[in-house]
Amino acid sequence: MTSAHAGKRSSGYLDQESNKRRSCRTGIRDAAVYGDGSPRCVELAKPHRTSMLTGMVVTALIVSIASAVGAVGAAVYAAIAASAAKRSAVAAEESAVLDKARRHVELTPHFTLLCWPTNPGSDIRTLVVSLSGPAALGHLDELTVSIRDDNYWLSAGTPLPGGPTKEDVAAQVWGPLRFTPGIGTGAPDPDGTLPRADETGRTTRTNGLPVGERLPFQLEPTRPPSWSGWSDEDWTRHVGPKIRLTLECRRDGYEPWTLKCEIDTSALPPMADV
Q: Which of 41, 157, 164, 236 is the most exposed place for a label (fewest CB within 10 A)?
């Protein structure tokens, strides 16, 4: 073999090796280099730096989004829970108010009132106020009995020049009877500390009473106003036989009860239930 021929073979071999290396570097199968049809170079599996960085960024972004979604979800859940708790508290408060109102109605005091002449032929009368129920009430801590005017607007008018003052009109009981001023309910009072009827005879305050007990009040006929010029007979005809009463009841822990009734003193029996 000549040197020229050998040189060509050597040069061809080097070219083949160079192609082989180039093909391997680029990861391309190239069987034509050798001509035998069998691949001598396999694909390279080197990880690409850019692809790895992109994957890491995408993963971090997904984690961030998931965290943000989780935070939003937690905030929404907390808001829903807080709203539900508020609604529950409002509902519980409303229920408590309704229960208290229902209980207040259930415990409304029941009274029986009688207004008899203290003695036959006497114009002094005894008003007996009996607390008949309900049993669950137990007692009243305070009971105030007042006599209302036959017309509520009488003490609200505008005084006439030279006539009675508003105080004079308010002090007058416009009805057939009033409490005897300074007289209490007849309970023992050695110290003189129990409440008594006021000086106008309109109101008597008491310290209350248990259910099933009663209190007596002394009543006397009213007189016509000093400025009216009416006789006793005229006054009696004017005010009529009905006594109008207001009972203000108090017990600790409850709103007061205000009850109103009328007793026709000419009826038999002269009584009322309220």
A: 157
Distances in whole angstroms, Cα of residue 229 to Cα of each of 48, 185, 200, 241: 122, 33, 20, 21
Of the candidates 177, 135, 144, 183, which has an alpha carbon nearest to the alpha carbon of residue 266? 177
Q: How far apart are CA 132 and CA 92, in angstroms?
A: 34
Which residue is it, tokens 């009696």?
A: 236
Q: How confident is the model at residue 187 (pLDDT cuts 50, 70, 90)?
A: low
Give the H or E element holding residue 272: strand 271-273
Q: Which two tokens stand for residue 76?
A: 């929404």
- For residue 256, which of 205, 218, 212 has the smallest C-alpha distance? 205
Contact status, residue 181 vs residue 151, Cβ threshold 8 Å = no
Residue 71 gets which letter from DSSP? H
**Is the model's pTM score more than 0.85?**
no
